[in-house]
Amino acid sequence: IGTRLCALWHSAGEPRFRALCRSPKTAAILRAAGYDAVSGDLLVPATIGPALHGCAAIVHLAHGDDDASITATNNLLAAAVHANIGRFIHISSMSVHGPAPTEADTDESTATIGHYGEPYSDSKAAQELAVQVAMKHGLRGLILRPTVVYGPGSPFVRQVVNDASLG
Q1: Which of 31, 46, 52, 165 minimizes the number of CB atoms within 10 Å of its CB?
Q2: H-only helix segments in 33-118
Q3: What is the pLDDT of residues 56-105, one digit of tens each?
């Protein structure tokens, strides 16, 4: 999602964004394409602060299925507060409503976020709750919950193409 977002912003003429990439290789590829990209690890707080220098907003796209992703989100939230970032946009997932969302989950006033014994859902729920707590303490934030995300290069699309080619 992040690489695609960079491409969209770049094609729209938005020169003022920086990609923080876990992989130095990905950061190098993005820099070669003309983007401002740095490598860093959200599990290593010392690598986050320099990447945020001069930034007014964060779009948090990192994910994972374990406690490390929750630590990473908490580290990024702490760095955002320390750097006085004006806006924190967290890309969550509709999976925070579990493997079988109900009609109640279509309305924020009745939707529940819980733990369902599904690693991805539970991790995303914990990350989202951390962002909500930070927002209650003054961080200007926004949480978005996409459903199925797919497109060129996504594992989802590759799996469908591979399955189709096998009949």
Answers
A1: 165
A2: 48-52, 67-82
A3: 999 999 887 778 999 999 999 999 999 999 999 999 988 898 888 888 88
